[in-house]
Design a protein that fits this description.
Structural class: alpha+beta
Helix content: 40-55%
Largest sheet: 6 strands, mixed
Radius of gyration: 36 Å
């Protein structure tokens, strides 16, 4: 007999069960693995709960959680029960004896194999389908909450005369239930059929009947349920026509019933509903007749009817009734679409007025004076001057400004002025040495606001700062300057413990602090520390000695991120902006309620509609959308986030919005009333950019009120590309204080231009009153230019500017060496029937690595000026000086001064070099101009060095403070 233990001379190997010690070890490891997985799941849940509790929005967390859990278990159990019961019934209805055939003999092996595990197999199958169905249903928590809390719109659709709430809140839930029913019916049918086949109730090759009477009745009932659900689907499809999207060749996306829908699809759906009901009854009748002949015939007729009535007949109506006279047939339905779309997007009150496009005033002095009063022309482009803020006011490398600053309004001496504002936020890339302690304990926050006049620059082209230095000082008074929450603050910090934080630093050394706010989550509990160590993948949180009593962890620190977390039912505007309100820095975030179920209102894609040249360059400005396809939007909520405490407040802004009222019912006590907005906060609220971009996109088509014109497409406009940007993206809207024709005073506005489809001349100028708290807030005005006159649009103006020989020559000179010309926002201002274009031109290069305002382009009535100051350019275009300003001061600012003699001497030299350069430029003496520019840079460098030395001696707050404080004489 062969040796089974090994070779003739080799050792014998024993093969058997592992030893008890090995089994115990394996079991212990398995238990530990399960516990570890459980703790990882617990850590995610626990940290989320702690965060929501820390921001006092725990009700949002619990409401969302319990809704998801409820939906998971209800629909998971329903699906498991549906499939399980049908498997059980099929097994119970199995024939007592199987036929003697090869097919059944093969199946006998499977039957015998699973016999000992039937219960476990049934439990596994039902659990699997239940888990999948429950997980899918839990994702419908928004649909459920909107259905159960929905409030009426008190507006009815023009076709079925149902309240809009049926389409916005009810229909989505009914469609989910219908989809769930179809899935349950199909899975039950498959499971029952397989069980019947396994146990002989269904036969493919066996002799005799192909199905037992019991199997026939069982499967017929399931098929009847499926067909009955199809009948319900046909009925709901009737209402779905009111929110169905289609395309017109001339007008693009269009929503609602058209002629073919109302006269072909609608009756077809009704007929198919009746046929499906009859077909379902025929399937149910097999319980008595025990034959599939009639239901199969009925099902075939239903499929044939769906093809002929639901597909072929509408195509015939479209081909032979609509196409020969489309405009006449579609006009009544287009009128419904026009009305509904305007209402759904809040553009029904748009004021469209004709505008001549050419000035009629001959008095040059009057035109020049009107230009001064028409708008507060913003020369500081917030999308260009961020590097200038960075260079002049960064102070330390670990501070930074966003790439796009913001425009706000601040009052001085009782007069509002447009202000470019940014926060000196923490920039971890500039920390001297990156390590865990520095990144998360020492460098935890930014410090201070930096602001500058939007309408002025000093004689060197730098901003006239109204808030400057570190700590910041200026026009804004006293306020909490630490910035723990901001757009650039994207990682967690641990504060308030034994490790001191760097508050700010100057030439006298570092100033430390310890966070005194109540924000964040306490790490005093070992469980909390372990949970965050797992959640953040950072073991040092568990055992680090830098964490002690009072330590708190701050995370989810960007304003948009915090608002989205506490209100997951809101769509967040892409541009959060800071404001100093009541001694605190507050981030202001606009938020929207949306729906995709407003009947007859055309849809828009938020991601595409709100994209422009700024969002393409800075993705942080993109809208945070809960649903990308919408056909109703309201700026229903204004939110604030405290830059120090992180406190989030939601204010009800649109008190009539039924979608917001629905969510306020679902999440009570999360949104404060509009009356809670303080006057100081109201002064900084503004009309949101993303809503304006959605509305302007719709108004390129929906500015017309006549159905025939809408269908012809002759009045379709487009948003022009940004002429100062080579990306080919749309021009962004601009905030600007301006006065429209017929108005007596300027109002803070959001403006844009529109051009004809496929052309570059101007079609319209659009603006909205952005000044919250005023009666005209939100009023949209469109100045429509005549079609018979060609008025240059932004792209043409920029092209003419670039092709002007004298301007091109000057640009070439400015770009000598390593310098680079950058174009600011091309602003459009209505003036005396014509349009005034103003564009600041910056130069970056040489020893100065940041843009400085060097020139101003002004175009009006075909005349173009390219001068050093706005005043000079306006006077040249209009051929007259302002009667309100002395000629020598027109458009200029007071040169900076300093108490330091050395600094003042350097500044005087800089002024002389600047004046010398301007004289050389006017004479066309390029060599002298280049020499003057070099002398100017040298003088400015000497002024910087002298002031920095003086600051070091006196313990000043930053090596750039001279520029800021000295400029204060011009507006600080």
């Amino acid at each position: 007999m062969p040796d089974r233990g090994g070779g003739p001379t080799g050792p014998r190997i024993r093969v058997g069960r592992p030893s008890r010690r090995v089994r115990t070890l394996l079991m212990t490891l398995a238990v530990l693995a399960v516990l570890a997985m459980a703790f990882v799941m617990f850590a995610g849940f626990w940290t989320d709960w702690l965060w929501y509790r820390s921001v006092h929005y725990s009700s949002v967390f619990t409401t969302t959680l319990w809704t998801k859990i409820g939906l998971f278990f209800v629909f998971g159990l329903l699906m498991a029960a549906a499939v399980g019961v049908n498997i059980w019934l099929a097994h119970k209805m199995r024939p007592p004896l199987s036929a003697m055939s090869m097919e059944q003999q093969s199946l006998d092996r499977y039957r015998m194999g699973i016999a000992p595990y039937k219960r476990w197999l049934l439990l596994a199958i039902t659990s699997l389908v239940g888990l999948i169905a429950g997980a899918s249903a839990s994702g419908q928590w928004r649909t459920w909450l909107m259905w159960v809390n929905g409030v009426p719109f008190h507006q009815k659709d023009p076709q079925f005369h149902l309240d809009v709430s049926f389409y916005a809140f009810d229909l989505p839930w009914y469609r989910f239930l219908l989809g769930f029913g179809f899935a349950a019916a199909v899975l039950s049918l498959i499971a029952a059929a397989l069980t019947h086949y396994l146990y002989g109730g269904l036969r493919i090759t066996s002799p005799g009947a192909r199905a037992t009477a019991a199997a026939t009745g069982h499967l017929s009932v399931l098929l009847g349920i499926f067909v009955a659900l199809k009948a319900v689907a046909y009925w709901l499809d009737r209402y779905g026509l009111a929110v169905k999207s289609s395309d017109f060749k001339t007008t693009g996306n269009w929503t609602g019933l058209r002629y073919v829908d109302a006269n072909a699809y609608l009756p077809a759906k009704t007929i198919l509903f009746c046929i499906a009901v009859i077909c379902a009854l025929l399937f149910f009748a097999t319980l008595w007749r025990r034959t599939w002949q009639l239901p199969v015939i009925g099902f075939g007729l239903m499929v044939l009817s769906a093809i002929l009535i639901g597909g072929l007949y509408p195509a015939i109506v479209q081909k032979f009734q609509v196409q020969p006279n489309e405009q006449a047939k579609e006009a009544p339905y287009v009128e419904k679409n026009l009305k509904a779309t305007r209402e759904a997007y809040g553009i029904d009150g748009t004021d469209v007025t004709d505008y001549p496009g050419a000035s009629t005033t001959k008095d040059k002095i009057k035109l020049r004076d009107d230009a001064d009063n028409a708008a507060s022309i913003r020369l500081m482009d917030p999308n260009v001057v961020s590097p200038t803020f960075q260079q002049l006011q960064q102070v330390r490398n670990y501070y930074g400004f966003p790439s796009n600053l913001d425009v706000d309004r601040y009052s001085k001496d009782g007069k509002d002025q447009d202000t470019v504002i940014g926060l000196r936020e923490l920039n971890l890339e500039g920390i001297p040495k990156n390590n865990w302690i520095n990144d998360h304990f020492r460098y935890t926050h930014g410090y201070g606001v930096v602001a500058a006049k939007g309408t002025e620059a000093d004689s060197e082209g730098r901003p006239v700062f109204t808030e400057y230095n570190l700590p910041s000082r200026g026009d804004l008074g006293q306020y909490q300057q630490q910035i723990y929450y901001g757009e650039k603050t994207t990682q967690y910090s641990i504060v308030g413990g034994p490790q001191k934080e760097i508050d700010y630093s100057d030439d006298s050394g570092e100033k430390t602090t310890s966070y005194q706010g109540k924000s964040g989550v306490s790490l005093s509990s070992p469980v909390n520390r372990a949970a965050y160590a797992v959640a953040f993948g950072e073991p040092q949180i568990l055992y680090s000695g830098a964490i002690g009593d009072g330590s708190r962890i701050l995370y989810n620190r960007t304003p948009k991120e915090r608002v989205e977390a506490v209100a997951p039912w809101l769509t967040i505007d892409g541009d959060a902006y800071p404001a100093v309100v009541d001694g605190k820095i507050q981030w202001i975030v606009d938020a929207y309620t949306t729906t995709n179920g407003y009947p007859y209102a055309s849809r828009t894609t938020l991601g595409d509609t709100t994209a422009d040249s700024l969002t393409a360059a800075n993705n942080q400005r993109a809208v945070v959308a809960q649903q990308n396809q919408v056909n109703y939007i309201r700026n229903s909520v204004k939110a604030t986030v405290d830059a120090y405490t992180g406190q989030v407040k939601l204010y009800q802004w649109d008190t009539k919005d039924p979608v917001l009222k629905t969510w306020m019912k679902a999440f009570p006590n999360t949104v404060q009333s509009k009356d809670s907005i303080s006057p100081s906060l109201m002064a900084h609220l503004r009309y949101p950019q993303d809503l304006f971009k959605v509305q302007r996109e719709l108004l390129t088509r929906y500015h017309v009120k006549d159905a025939q014109t809408f269908l012809s497409g002759s009045e379709v406009w487009q948003i022009p590309d940004d002429p100062t940007n080579e990306s080919g993206d749309a021009v962004p809207p601009y905030y600007l204080s301006m006065k429209l024709p017929g108005q007596t005073s300027q109002a803070f506005s959001l403006t844009t231009t529109m051009t004809p489809n496929g052309r570059d001349n101007l079609s319209a100028f659009m603006s909205v009153n952005a000044e919250a708290g005023t009666g005209d807030y939100g009023r949209i005005t469109i100045l429509k230019l005549p079609t018979g006159r060609t008025v240059d649009g932004p792209k043409r103006v920029q092209s003419q500017f670039n092709s002007e020989p004298s301007i091109a020559e000057t640009i070439s000179l400015l770009e000598r060496g390593h310098s680079k010309v950058e174009y600011g926002n091309l602003l459009t201002v209505p003036l005396d029937g014509g349009l005034l274009y103003v564009e600041p031109v910056y130069v970056r290069g040489g020893d100065l690595k940041y843009p400085l305002l060097r020139k101003v382009l002004v175009t009006f009535g075909g005349r173009t000026a390219f001068e050093d100051t706005l005043g000079e350019a306006l006077s040249k275009v209009f051929g007259a000086n302002s009667s309100t300003l002395p000629p020598e001061n027109e458009g200029t600012t007071k040169p900076p001064t300093s108490n330091n003699p050395t600094v003042q001497e350097a500044l005087n030299d800089a002024q002389k070099a600047f004046d010398k350069g301007q004289e050389a430029l006017k004479k066309g003496d390029w060599q002298s101009y280049g020499e003057a520019q070099k002398d100017l840079e040298d003088a400015l460098k000497r002024a910087e060095d002298a002031q920095s030395k003086a600051d070091n001696t006196a313990g000043g707050s930053g090596n750039n403070s001279d520029k800021s404080s000295d400029k204060s004489s011009g507006g600080g």
